[in-house]
Design a protein that fits this description.
The chain has 2 domains: 214 residues, 3-Layer(aba) Sandwich (D-Maltodextrin-Binding Protein, domain 2); 89 residues, D-Maltodextrin-Binding Protein, domain 2, CATH 3.40.190.10. Helix content is 36%, strand content 17%. It has 13 helices and 10 strands. It has a 5-stranded mixed sheet with strand order 2-1-3-10-4. Helix 2 crosses helix 11 and helix 5 packs across helix 13. The radius of gyration is 19 Å and the shape is globular. The protein starts with a helix and ends in a 20-residue tail after the last helix.
Length: 316
Amino acid sequence: MFAAASCAILLPGCHGGRSDSGSGLAPIRLQLDWYPQPEHGGFFAAQLLGYYKAEGLDVSLLLLPQYGSVAQLVATGKADIGLGSSDQILEWDSNGLPLMAISATMQHDPQAIMVHKDSPIHDFKDLEGHTVAAQTGATWLKYVISRYNLHEVRQIPSTLSIANFLADPGYVQQIFVTSEPFFAKQAGAEVRTLPISSTGYDPYRVSFTTRDFAASNPELVAKFVRASIRGWQAYLADPAAVNAELLKLNPALNPAQEAFSAQALRDGRFVTGEGAGQTGRMTAARWDAGAEQLKSLGILHGAVDPATAYSLKFQP
């Protein structure tokens, strides 16, 4: 609800529509997948520090409308580039949306499950007989049930709140390790987290566009990717200035939460990966592996070629 109401308070240049201010900069509309937060830090850094402008771009950072779909907004031309994940791109392509990932915004998805410290769940195979609060249609949970041959796992909708978790010592909840553990610890709960990527289900988080936009504007896309990578490198090195701006844009944040999220991004190497020079990069092997996992679950419809769902040519 906050995201739907806050577009007017975005940073200069974060306007809600595509326009040319007469500056000679090429306009690009980036559709965020949530309200401003440290998990978007690299994009805000690229704007605040002038990296987009240095590439000749006027990038608008668009908030996601209430009940909005990033895929639909990009596919229908209401935004030029959106944020999502590689498994989503494959599913969307399978459903007829001609979308293409252009860069990895995170090498690993920071989603996990959170349990109380004394929970008997120490591995995903231990979910047998338990109830999991997860996003509706969570593909990762279908994969976990299949991989570990689980028969008695009940799913309930995630409420995007930790109230139920705090009230129930047996509660199991899907979370972002960069967010919910902070609030749980602030409330006095001792928690453990199990990253979903540890199961072998390890999609990228990506920026994406339509195949037509990428084909018609290859230089603009390459510039956007290059500046965004610079932004992420700057944000992870020193998030203070960007976090101060994010706090203005989203008063629901607080400095301690922002510091926790930024440190969690660094500690988990979600953006940078485990090796040098991985920021922004993708590999065909991981896309192929992800597509095979979705095919084995019966999620993809028809003959889906994963090579059409991404492009590596925009990587620096």
